[in-house]
Amino acid sequence: MTRTSQPTRLPSDVYESAVAAARVASRTVPQQIAHWARIGRELEMSPQVNHRAIARVLSGADSYDSLGEQEQAIVREEWTERVTALREELNYEAAFAAAGEPYSEADEDGNVVVRRARG
Asked: For the chain, is the Cβ count within 10 Å smaller at the N or the C terminus?
């Protein structure tokens, strides 16, 4: 049976991790990603993983400490993805400019640079 693949966009960190893992495992990048997808599918279908409990923790209705080790690992990964997505949306320069406030930041060499308020 011939299978066709659909183009899929991946976050750059996932792709870069797949490149590194593929080298170690002697796989192509698509093979590595498919391997991880199969593991994820099996994990989600596993009777040892309580998906309802994970959903309760992710929604804030239950405590992280109530989960087992596997569930905690899944929640940590989800939290990491959510935090990364939120950080990518941040634009402090625009927020300070809109407020008319100066701000400081470190340059590439670690030196403090004060940015003046525009306007």
From this structure: N
Residues 64-105 have pLDDT tens digits of 999 999 899 989 988 988 898 888 889 988 999 899 999 999
Considering only CA atoms, which of 61, 45, 42 is closest in space to residue 53? 61
Structural domain boundaries in the chain = 12-89
Residues 6+ apart with CB under 8 A from 87: none
How far is Cα 118 from Cα 97, in angstroms, rounded to an integer? 6
The long-range contacts involving 77-86, CB below 8 angstroms and separated by at least 24 positions, are 78/54, 84/11, 84/13
Q: Please measure the distance between the N-terminal and C-terminal CA atoms of the chain and give it in whole angstroms.
A: 64
- Phi, psi of 106, deg, nearest 5: -95, 140
DSSP conformation class of 94: H
